[in-house]
Amino acid sequence: MAPRKKAAGPDDDRTRSFPAFPPAVGSRTAFAGSWWGQAWVDALETTSMDAARLGRGRTYARRGAVEDITVTPGLAKAKVQGSRPRPYTSTVEVEQLSDADWDRLLKAVASRAAHIAALLDKDMPPELLDDAKAAGVRLLPAAGDLSPGCSCPDWGWPCKHASALCYQIARLLDTDPFVLLLLRGRGEQELMEELRTRNAAAAATATAHDSDSGTGTSRLGTETPSVVGISAVEAFSAAPGDPAALLAGITAFEIPAAPDVPGRPPVLAAATGEAVDAIDAVALERLAADTAGRAHTLRTLYTGFDEPAATPLMPQLTTWQDAVRMAAEEDEAASEEVYERVLSAYDLGDVQMSMSILAWRQGGSAGLSTLETAWTPTTADKARARRSLEDWTADGDPPALRVWRNRWTAQAEGVQVRLGTDHRWYPYRRDPEDGTWWPLGTAEHDPASALATLLTDADKAAEHLGLVRP
After folding, report:
1. Contact 140, 40 (CB under 8 A)
2. Nearest CA to 189 among 428, 20, 197?
3. DSSP 132-172
4. What are phi and psi of 426, to 5 degrees?
5. CA pair distance 238, 171, nearest whole angstrom
6. How many other β-carbons are positioned within 10 Å of the β-carbon of residue 423?
7. Which of 429, 424, 384 has the alpha carbon at shortest distance from 411?
8. Which of 4, 51, 91, 150 has the most CB atoms around it within 10 Å of its CB?
């Protein structure tokens, strides 16, 4: 769940507001999918003195009683709708780390680039917690670290309203571990700036050491090539905290133009030797070629933006999503090879793999998620969809639609549109042979357009379905 956008300010990083989660009535899905989110739930349930109130808190959370959640250092707060018309104000306090704790924790994180990369990827690897523990810092909350409170008259500890807030916080932690770090006392921007400062200082020390131990030669003994401009270490250390000065230093480099085509990686499959035999050379060649292609795309696209660093172009993908992306490439020879490898690695059938590729071509990771996962849209999403469909069918006979979660189905016509998490509508057509639903067509920004394409081009879509079915 993404925090709300707010006007920039010096304290924005230390105050984050998250919109309410939609109701999930009837669902018994765990509140935490990540291991660190589950650690939060464990701390709550160990702290509680009343299991029955926890159960009612879970019910309150699932029915959407918890409104917007505001997180600041050491405190999370939200309005929770109880049995009375006016909602209660519930809070949960979390013990903050001391400055000495933060110093030891940041030292442990900064010492491993993988920790920083994982946090930026919204992940918290167990190794980070191990390093923190070795430094004498307990990052995840334990029994006694959480202190729930509420404005209701219930003396339970915690009451059902505060319990509901705590369970929803577990969902926030699932998607963004920086929420936990903020509760422990530091904001994301604040932490990343401190890590950058520490890394710059370490790099400056290493550079000074190299200069003292040699005369312009690299560790391989070859002469270091001259570079026009200034080093990144100088750019960061010249004016810490001054983005304009930093940008001026970075732009002193003359960035070469992107080549017309991506570079070609070395051919490894024909090589021999013990080192080569120990790896899958064909797979490594394919990954290298893919990396070169993506880097070339990234370099080309960035030249069209005034502020490239603020322009996300390539989303972070899971291993499965990236495998489907590579199999969906238009290079038929390469795609066929990847296709077979993915089938084998994930033990899939042709139908499931073909559907996944079509879904990726429809909408990338959002299209694949729409194929694989049903979810419950908000009331506002449903209302907008109904208005769009009512306007479209005002002058004719609308198809009868059955609505289930994010899927709107015209059973008689054998068509369906699904709302994706990117708020686009994905068209699907039912295979008359086995009743499976296939992603076909282009994602649209309103359901009427997606349905209209399916209904007006039924013959063409059916013919296409015959072509893509394995």
Report:
1. yes
2. 197
3. HHHTT---S--TTSEEEEESSS---TT-HHHHHHHHHHHHH
4. -105, 125
5. 41
6. 13
7. 429
8. 150
SS3 of 11, please?
Answer: coil
Residues recorded for the chain: 470
- For the segment 188-209, what is each residue's pLDDT rounded down to a tens digit? 888 888 877 777 676 566 555 5
pTM (2 d.p.): 0.46
pLDDT higher than 50, residue 302: yes
Pairing of strands 402-404, 75-80: unpaired
Burial of 259 from C-beta contacts in 10 A (0-12 / 13-18 / 19+): exposed
Q: How far is CA 443 from CA 359, 399, 415, 426, in A?
A: 10, 20, 14, 5
Structure tokens that stand for 469 in this block: 């079915």
Report the C-alpha gap between 415 and 428 in whole angstroms. 6
| Residue type for position 367 | G
Helix locations, 48-89, DSSP H: 51-62
Half-sphere exposure of 43 (CA within 13 A, CB side): 26
